[in-house]
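Example record

The entry below shows one chain as it appears in the dataset: sequence first, then structure tokens.
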Amino acid sequence: MPLISVGFVAVAGLLAGWPPRLWRGWERIVEAELLRLRGGRPVPANVVLVAIDDASLQQGAWFAAEPEPPPWAAGTSTLPWPRARYAELIERLRAAGARAVAINVVFEGASGRGAADDAALRAALHRHRGHVALAAEVTETQDSQAGTGLALVLPESFSAALAQPGSVVDHPGLGLANILPPGGGEPLRHPEFFGSVLLPAQQLEPFPALSTTVLAQAGLASRQPDRRRELNVYGAEPRFARISAWEVLDPSRWGRHPLRPRVAGAVVLVGPVVAQGGVGLPTPFGPLSGLETLATATANSLAGDGLAPWPANPWGRAALAMAPVALAALVLQRQSSQAGRRAGLLTALLALQVLVAWGALRWTHRWLPLLPPVTALVALAAVHGVDAYRLEGRERRRLRRTFERYVAPSVVAEILATPEEAETILRGKPLTVTVLFCDIKGFTTMTMRRSAAGQTGALVAQLNTYLAEMVEVITAHGGTIDKFIGDCVVAVFGSPLSRGLHDEAVAAVRCALAMGEALQRLNDRWQASGEEPIANGVGLASGTVVAGQIGSPRRMEFTVIGETVNLAARLESLTRQFPDAALLCDQTTAELVAGTLPLESMGCWPLKGVGDVTVYGLPRPSHPRPGLPQPGPGAPEASS
């Protein structure tokens, strides 16, 4: 078992630090579930979207049908829009106080609507240069000779209008609109990863993301290393403050728009968001459009709340994943063999692991290794569960073998229902019980006489028959066979389990009477076959004893010890003075059965090692009430 546990610890570390591709895909599924469990979260107020949405296209078509459509609505019923419309959006948004504006549209080549269309946008860009960012794009090209390659698409007609005087930046005001789609076990990365990591890996010059460029145009800096972050989605789209583009273009509508004050001091992102129809970048909250993805990246950079694995180093992640598995393995090795306790411990560790991972995601935006340690803990639970049940089964069989030598099978089943209690009983426990001693009268003399007559085998057979019958009677009355001392049977009522002091005392007295009746039946049979009958005496005492397994490591027996045991033995010896009594008992037993069984006082008798004791008894059913001997100074003491 220790080697198996070490193996699980090692596997958890390997999967956390160096996961294979298939495993990474499973990790993404777990992370998505954690994000859904976390739910949506508030977005920064200083990121606003202006969407060229279905409403804008419908309004453009509606105005186009008018006899005299307003100039701002020209060409807005279909995509692509005239570039002059984007120029008007820039003008109105900047006039409303927008800190910077990003246009998430790639203006490749000259406008299809003529040079005036380009000139209008160029003039707006020139007036607001340093506060406007345009999109560029990397596309995949196919060449029959060179094969597949990557090409950078730039809005070259507007590069000069975006440039600041004296700027040494190669492409001022431009940013890539590309984002690497998640797949193959990879997460949804920040757009900066595409231009800063993926392009250099293809021997191309790095290029900033559009989200990075617009923040620079706004004079803001990212609060995180974007290239090493994943997108931390805020929820299902739409999540950010969103204004339909036609509402900005329509002067009457824009002048009284309720969201216009939100534009002041904000980073405004402009782009098409038509009905997605399920198309978009996949996230735990559903697909995101390009504009919503750009807003998420921009907001993550501003807030510094992008997602990242922690620790970033694979060795650190391996160590963090191994820690809970190693702790669980260590604790399980020291725990009891009971399956229930092990299962409870592992369930608690699993719940704690998930809670810590969820808390780290919720408040620190970090992915802790979760799937490897959870998987290892579940596997560890299964293995230890099987082992625990195996050990528990072996322990139950041991306890069953131990107790079945003393008590009825029904009592054994009740004891084994709580193995902890059974172990407590075996270690030693004070109990209030009724102790029964039953001894054959004159057995020593009988043994000597029959041995001399060569009847040893017959005597042993007769003794075994007698003892077997007595054991059956005791078991039938719910007593526990404590021990055999030669021809003496010692039984206890109330150990290891008690039915109540009264019930145990009544059962013990009735058992004594039944033992007498069983012996009478045996004597009738023996006399009919010519065998010598025997007589026995029964002594009962009730009180506190210590019950448990007593002996050496090589030989143990479950027994009871204490003054109550000695008193029962002395009362059994005293039965020689009462040949017609079915039993003798102490006053405690008589009081416990008072009103149920008619015990009679036999007087006060001195018992060796005990002192004067008031003795109670019952006559044998086949005899009248015996004449009581009179105790006194000359009366013999009962001895063992």
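Notes for this example: The first helix runs from residue 2 to 17. Confidence is low (pLDDT under 50) at residues 623-628, 632-640.
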